[in-house]
Amino acid sequence: MPILRPSLALAPLALAVLALPVPAGPAAAQRPPAPAAVSRSAEAVSVIEAVDQRERSVILRSEDGTLTTLFLGQRVRNLPQVKAGDRVVTRVTQSVAVALTPPDAPGLPPVAGEGAAVAPPGALPGATYVRSLRLPVTVNAVDRRNNAVTVTGPQGQTQTVSLRDQKMRDFARRLRPGDRVQVTIVEGISIEVVP
After folding, report:
1. Domain containing 106: what range?
2. Is the residue at 63 inside a domain?
């Protein structure tokens, strides 16, 4: 199956997971927040209705009954192993981890990486793509009344975001303007044909 590339706009995705709804008390100022991580996954299953080996296409029926024709091209190997009735399972996972950077630690630049794998020859088609990004941000402001935080990224871009996950709220409870946070984002997609 073709490798689907996740959105390249990962920084806003990671920051959208961060929000600050909890006021900080005196005890919060004494301890730095513990690192936190959240992950979300989604899965979709389609059934192959028809395969055209000459045209290199398949017709998929989604869970809601919608038909979609995919033209697969020459890069997709193992198409001869696919038949009507096989299922195509697509999984998307997004994970975000945050950690406070100690004040005396040197600033780290953003780091991005990616990897891909496909099924071996003769197997049913399948592919996996994973992308990761480590992004340092600086906390500019914390608006606890509106559950928002404003941060500046490594290239000077400023963004205000809302926290959604309780783990991130707990992490953010002790953040202060000027704190530096290391955000690590991992996003992956896998496509697998199963009989």
Report:
1. 10-40+87-194
2. no
Helix (H, G, I), strand (E, B) or coil at 193: strand
- Tokens of residue 99, six digits: 């950690």
Give CB contacts under 8 A, 24+ apart, made by 176-180: 176/29, 176/139, 176/142, 177/139, 177/140, 177/141, 177/142, 178/138, 178/139, 179/100, 179/101, 179/138, 179/139, 180/100, 180/101, 180/103, 180/105, 180/107, 180/136, 180/137, 180/138, 180/139
> 16 lies in a domain?
yes
Tens digits of residue pLDDT in 98-112: 999 988 888 788 999
Q: Are 19 and 168 in contact (CB under 8 A)?
A: yes
Is 138 in a helix, a strand, or coil?
A: strand
The count of other CB atoms within 10 Å of the CB of residue 37 is 16
Task: Provide the number of structural domains found in the chain.
Answer: 1
Alpha helices by DSSP H, the chain: 10-17, 26-30, 166-172
The dihedrals phi and psi of 75, each to the nearest 5 degrees, come to: -70, -20
* Predicted TM-score of the model (pTM): 0.73
| Structural domain includes residue 57 | no
At 42-96, the pLDDT tens digits run 999 999 999 999 999 999 999 999 999 999 888 788 999 999 999 999 999 999 9
Whether 102 maps to a domain, the answer reads yes
